[in-house]
Design a protein that fits this description.
- It is a single chain.
- This protein has one domain: Rossmann fold (3-Layer(aba) Sandwich), CATH 3.40.50.
- It contains eight helices and nine strands.
- Helix 1 crosses helix 8 and helix 4 packs parallel to helix 5.
- It has 249 residues and is an alpha/beta fold.
- The structure holds NADPH dihydro-nicotinamide-adenine-dinucleotide phosphate and 2-hydroxyethylsulfonic acid.
- NADPH dihydro-nicotinamide-adenine-dinucleotide phosphate (NDP) binds next to helix 1 and helix 6.
- This is Serine 3-dehydrogenase.
- Keywords: Oxidoreductase.
- GO terms for molecular function: serine 3-dehydrogenase activity.
- Belongs to the short-chain dehydrogenases/reductases (SDR) family.
Length: 249
C-alpha cells in the first residue's frame, strides 16, 4: 500500500532531497516550506498525485493548522513525519549574538517542531507511524558560536528520546538524526546571506550532501516495524572533534 510522508523544510537541502528520494520510491509526499515556487517545482516534477505542496511558515500555528485541514483526501493518513525544517542564525559568541536570531531559532527549531508533532501524534499512534526529528551534532558537542542553535538541537535530541519513552507500547518509532557538516543552504542562512562565508565553510572539505542525509531518512523510514534507531549521528570523514579551550593568564 502506498505510504504517506510529511517532510517539513522541503524547499531546500535535506528536505528537498528527501522529497525526491521518497517520491521516486513511490511514496506520497507532503512537502512543506515557505517558498511556494520551489514546492511547486517538486509538484510539477513528480505530479500532484505524488507530491502535495503545503505552503506555510512553521511558526504560524493557524497557517499550519489550515494547511493540515486542507490536505487532499489521498494525503490525509500520514505514516511518517520528518521534522526537518530549521535553521541556525549567526556564529557570534553569546555576548554578541542577536536576541532576535535566538528567538527565531527557538520558535522554528523547538516550538514549531513540538506543535506539529503534538498535532499529528494521535494519527501517528493510530497508524503505528514513524517520527524522524532533525537534530545535529551541535546537540552533543558545543562549539564557539553554537550557543542557542546547539541548545535547540539538544532539545530536539532529548525530546525525541522522551517521545520514544512515552510512546512505548504504541508501535510508533522515533529517531533523532544528528548530522554534522552537510552542504545545503544552511550556512548561507546562518551567515544572513554571505555567499563567500558559505563557500569558505564547505570549500575543500568534502562535506556530506543533502542526498546523503535523504538516504539515511529513507533507511530509517523503511526499517522493519520491530526496529528503532534511537539516535543516528553522522559526519563526513573530513570532520571530527577538537579539544577543550584553556584560557591561560
Ligand atoms: P536549508 O537551509 O537548505 O533548508 C532549511 C529548510 O527549513 C528550508 O526548506 C526552509 O524553507 C525551512 N524552514 C526554515 N524556517 C522555516 C519556517 N519558519 N517555516 C517553514 N519552513 C522553514 O538547510 P538544511 O537542509 O541543511 O537544514 C535542514 C535541517 O537540518 C535544519 O533543521 C538544520 O538545522 C539541520 N541540520 C543541518 C546540517 C547541515 O550541516 N546542513 C547539519 C545538521 C542538522 P523556507 O525557507 O522555504 O521556509
Ligand atoms: C549543523 C552542523 O556542525 O554546523 O547542525 O553545527 S554544525
Amino acid at each position: 500500500m502506498t505510504k504517506t510522508i510529511l517532510i517539513t523544510g522541503a524547499t531546500s537541502g535535506f528536505g528537498a532531497a528527501a522529497v525526491k528520494r521518497f517520491a521516486e520510491a513511490g511514496w506520497r509526499v507532503i512537502a512543506t516550506g515557505r517558498r511556494a515556487e520551489r514546492l511547486q517545482g517538486l509538484v510539477d516534477r513528480f505530479g500532484a498525485d505524488k507530491v502535495h505542496a503545503a505552503v506555510f511558515d512553521m511558526r504560524d500555528e493557524a497557517a499550519l493548522e489550515a494547511s493540515l485541514a486542507a490536505l487532499p483526501e489521498a494525503f490525509r493518513s500520514i505514516d511518517v513525519l520528518v521534522n526537518n525544517a530549521g535553521l541556525a542564525l549567526g556564529t557570534a559568541p553569546a555576548q554578541k549574538a542577536s536576541l532576535q536570531d535566538w528567538r527565531t531559532m527557538i520558535d522554528t527549531n523547538i516550538t514549531a517542531l513540538v506543535t506539529l508533532t503534538h498535532r499529528l501524534l494521535p494519527d501517528l499512534i493510530e497508524r503505528k507511524g514513524v517520527i524522524i526529528n532533525m537534530s545535529s551534532v551541535a546537540a552533543s558537542y558545543p562549539y564557539p558560536g553554537g550557543n542557542t542553535y546547539g541548545g535547540s538541537k539538544a532539545f530536539v535530541k532529548q525530546f525525541s528520546l522522551g517521545l520514544r519513552s512515552d510512546l512505548h507500547g504504541t508501535g510508533v518509532r522515533v529517531t533523532s538524526i544528528e548530522p554534522g557538516m552537510a552542504e545545503t543552504e544552511f550556512t548561507l542562512v546562518r551567515t544572513h546571506g554571505d555567499q563567500a562565508a558559505s563557500d569558505k565553510m564547505y570549500g575543500g572539505a568534502t562535506p556530506m550532501t543533502a542526498e546523503d542525509i535523504a538516504e539515511q531518512l529513507y533507511y530509517i523510514a523503511t526499517l522493519p516495524p520491530h526496529l528503532n534507531i534511537n539516535r543516528l549521528e553522522i559526519m563526513p570523514v573530513t570532520q571530527s572533534f577538537a579539544g577543550f579551550q584553556v584560557d591561560r593568564k
